[in-house]
Amino acid sequence: QPGRVTAPQIRARKGGEPIVSLTSYHAHTARIIDPFVDFILVGDSLGMVMHGLETTIPVTLDMMILQGHAVMRGSSHALIVVDMPFGSYEESREQAFRNAARVMKETGCGAVKLEGGERMADTIRFLTERGVPVMGHVGLTPQSIMALGSFKAQGREEKDWGPIERDARAVADAGAFAIVLEAVAEPLGARITREVAVPTIGIGASPACDGQILVLEDMLGLSERVPKFVRKFGSLADHIREAVAAYAGEVRARSFPAPENTYAMKKG
Ligand code: KIV
Ligand code: NA
């Protein structure tokens, strides 16, 4: 992917200027955000955002590949990171490699992301040693929702910090080029950022993280319900409602289409 940001370049930004990232699942949103971000995540949140699912559990590898390919086509600058969906990498490091290689071959993306800390360290090492750049994801890991019981912030009591810190360290030591920290207590996010040698990408974590990511539809004001860690930087749902109401009114009044939107007969 000539000219694109690379995983090693993201890795080298530890402690530097904040890394900016958003999700995208489509060519058109990828095209719009591409100049502003360092990497675009094709997140398995597409299950909820695009398909109205309750969780990311039902998301398949084929869904990720289809949208990953769309985002690659729409972008030319950002590193594209594609989420490995639930069930596509946990069974063995061989399964993880086979499926990650498929994602890279079929989308052309520059990295994959997978959830889990210490338990995924062997797999992350296996992949990174074989040419698959891996982004880690610790703290709240939505693919474990059925085991966790609910989506809630992690590490809000100091006694719970140990395992989360060990997860982040294990993922970094295994060779991940960056780590998403999702929904962790702010001081824990700052502490892990100080402790690990690779960039942390916060979502509901800390402004001290080496970068930040949000789900695009959430920050644009398109999603119906959003977690506390989202700031709405736009109100796209209102814009869409206004535009669609105007269109409906003009169709009903027969003022759309106007002459400039219709084809006249050829002269002669
Ligand atoms: O799927 C997703 O959108 C994510 C980000 C929220 C980090 O994993
Ligand atoms: Na995800």
Automatic annotation (TrEMBL):
The keyword ATP-binding does not apply. Its main location: cytoplasm. Mg(2+) binds at residues 44, 83, 115. It holds the Pfam family Pantoate_transf. Catalyzes the reversible reaction in which hydroxymethyl group from 5,10-methylenetetrahydrofolate is transferred onto alpha-ketoisovalerate to form ketopantoate. Belongs to the PanB family. This is 3-methyl-2-oxobutanoate hydroxymethyltransferase. It comes from Labrys wisconsinensis.
